[in-house]
Amino acid sequence: MAPLGGGNAFKLGLFGLNTDGGIAITKVAERWRARWDEIAEVAQLADRIGLDFILPIARWKGYGGETNVRNASFETLTHGAALAALTKRIAIFSTVHVPLVHPVFAAKALATIDHVSHGRAGLNIVCGWNQDEFDMFGQGQSAHDARYEQGREWLEIVERIFKSEGRPFDYKGRFYVLKGVSGEPAPVQQPRPVTMSAASSPAGRDFAVRTSDFLFTTFGDLDKAKAQLADIAVRSTTAGTGKTLSVFTACHVVCRETDRDAQDYYRHYAAENADTAAVDFHIGMTAANRQVDTVVLQDRVRRAAGLSSYPLVGTPERIAGQLADIHTLGYAGTSLSFVNFRDELPFFAQRVLPLLVARGLRAA
Ligand SMILES: Cc1cc2nc3c(=O)[nH]c(=O)nc-3n(C[C@H](O)[C@H](O)[C@H](O)COP(=O)(O)O)c2cc1C
Questions:
Q1: Are 286 and 292 in contact (CB under 8 A)?
Q2: What pTM did the predictor assign?
Q3: Of 30, 35, 56, 59, which is most buried, counting CB atoms within 10 Å of its CB?
Q4: pLDDT digits (tens, 9 = 90+) for 309-322
Q5: Given the DSSP bridges, would you call strands 177-181 and 169-172 parallel, antiparallel or unpaired?
């Protein structure tokens, strides 16, 4: 886990730089447009200020509505290779759809990023939910829990390629039957690049416990977060892996000099200027294909603000306190997303990061 092994007790990264709108569903003019030069600039800033990871969304199609938000996005493996060349120390994740990207291809692409970055590549496994975009590939989906069975075969193949040392192997599973598989070079990180998987359901948690270094997931409120972490600890024990799985969560941020300013802006972009048709589409597609907290799912403002991630809205002091609470609960870190990363990350860096250092959450 070299790229995430550094001295920060609570890891921080950016989520959604590669997609238009970031993780918001808003019509405000200043919303994130995912232009390449701006992505590169923000990634380099994140690298300089010591953030731990860049995590892209895997998305192939927009959510309709007035903005058709997420219709523009950069593919995550090629995005990762480019950012690997432009940064020096931050971990660069690629979010990969198991049913859409063949494991032999994924292994080679990941190894490429790991070499370009000298050992900073990360894999974020997503097993699928959005049938609307799978239809573009002529691809159906297995029953919910079977998607994770495919994920296990998929990752097993990737890992076997990484340790194959030039000796081809055959693979016979339920989802993949492959002959004479090989792939070199092996990645710099051994036995494989740092691996995370994104899910909410019990099956998704079990998959992460058995396969990944981190689970990436969201929580409704701090009480539900406590229950979620307890459940993951039990699943880790049951799986007998010898460790409790580390968990990253996701937050969206509006940080301003006053709470009032932050709350006003939050209401402005996520309530008054939500792209309501796209929000409806996202809620409908999620309800049909994912096992999520239904209370959070129906919260339309939170969905427009940052999907089902946790809101950090207020002064630097308030947000530092919220992050400390999340750390105390037991999360290993969180992703951060902003309405406009380029406009808002510098203020966060100047005002919130020092408070996290003072609280012992981050190295100086
Ligand atoms: C925090 C988080 C981030 C996710 N990011 C993506 C993504 O970038 N692309 C994607 O297609 N699915 C993404 N997903 C969806 C999951 O990978 C999974 O397919 C979905 O949650 C349905 O499975 P579940 O019911 O087991 O949670 C994400 C899920 C979570 C919780």
A1: yes
A2: 0.97
A3: 56
A4: 999 999 999 999 99
A5: antiparallel
The rounded Å distance from CA 358 to ligand 1 centre is: 33
Query: Domain total for the chain?
Result: 1
Q: How many CB atoms lie within 10 A of CB 101?
A: 18
Token pair 């192997």 in the structure block, residue: 169
Model confidence over 265-317: pLDDT tens digits? 999 999 999 999 999 999 999 998 888 888 888 899 999 999 989 999 999 99
Q: Which residues line ligand 1 (CB under 6 A)?
A: 57-59, 95, 97, 126-130, 198-201, 203-204, 216-218, 250, 290-291
Cα–ligand 1 centroid distance for 198 (angstroms)? 5
- Cite the beta strand spans of 43-115 per DSSP E: 53-55, 91-97
Give per-residue pLDDT as tens, 59-72.
999 999 999 999 99
For tokens 């990634």, the residue is 43
What domain range is 289 assigned to? Answer: 2-358
Q: Which residue has the tokens 């950016």?
A: 14
Q: Is residue 140 part of a domain?
A: yes
Q: What is the CATH number of the domain that holds 174?
A: 3.20.20.30
